[in-house]
Amino acid sequence: MPLNRPTICVLGCGTMGIAIIRGTLDSIAGSDSVQSSPKISSATVAGSSVSEQDDLLRPAGFIACVSHEDSASKLRKVLGSQVRVLHGSAGNVQGVSEADVILLCTKPQVAKAVLSAPGIQEALTGKLLISICAGVTIDQLQSWTTPSTTVIRAMPNTPCKIREGMTVISCRPNTDIQSLDFTSKIFSTLGRCRILDEKHLDAVTALAGSGPAFACVMLEALADGGVMMGLPRDVATELAAQVLQGAARMVLTTGEHPAAIKDSVTTPGGCTIAGLLTMEDGKIRSTLARTIQEATTVASTLGRDKK
Q1: Angle CA(179)–CA(65)–CA(19) in degrees, nearest 5?
Q2: What is the three-class DSSP state of 145?
Q3: Pairing, β 7-11 against β 61-66
Q4: Residue 166 and residue 188: Cα distance in Å, rounded?
Q5: Are 132 and 154 in contact (CB under 8 A)?
Q6: What angle do CA 139, 142, 145 make, to 5 degrees?
Q7: How far is CA 92 from the centre of its chain?
């Protein structure tokens, strides 16, 4: 089904669903069109110019679906009148039926039950399903829907809430360019967006999805060190946060290897090399690398049926 000013239904509209809706609405309000993805922004689809495609792919509206009425009431207060909020199984069916694009934001463990509920498969016929469920594969999603449903997986992270997120998209090779372009545009409103093969998504879940939690542990530890040496807690936290943000932006902006930036700060016999050797004594490199390895292993099990 061609996408023309599509309506988006968010199934399981929690933290990430709210972030996606807000990011898209903010982008529309700011530029009067959904921002183009760097990956596909130069593409021309079906003989139309990029600007024409941007207008065609701009969402016409949002429907947010949640399980319970009390959750729906809270969500209406959060999202306001720009978004229709429905609840319960009947609300899911209604939302999917009225939408052109369905964003699956449920917990991985309940994705199958939600998509297998009466009326959902029929409502998904010929539509685009974008899933952010960690560990749930495209093959699984396709088996729970219909052959005519286009399935794309996306893995965003929590900094999407402030439009500083990192999202990775995966799809089958035969996915139509318009569906892929639309998905890329939506997540590009929330930060950076990249397209990778599905085989990488468990590692992406561990590094980008869980990464903010790991980064906050490092940030907290750096701040603790500042407090131990006499800095007020708020000052130490601000310094640590800005240091991590600044170092990350240097890597992204300059394209330099992190080791090169580290070496540029490290003078012979100085305090930086003394601190670095202490970090190496604590095996920080292998600990962080193993952290991603273990999180990847767990991510690969999230979509499995629990027996």
Answers
A1: 65
A2: coil
A3: parallel
A4: 9
A5: yes
A6: 155
A7: 22
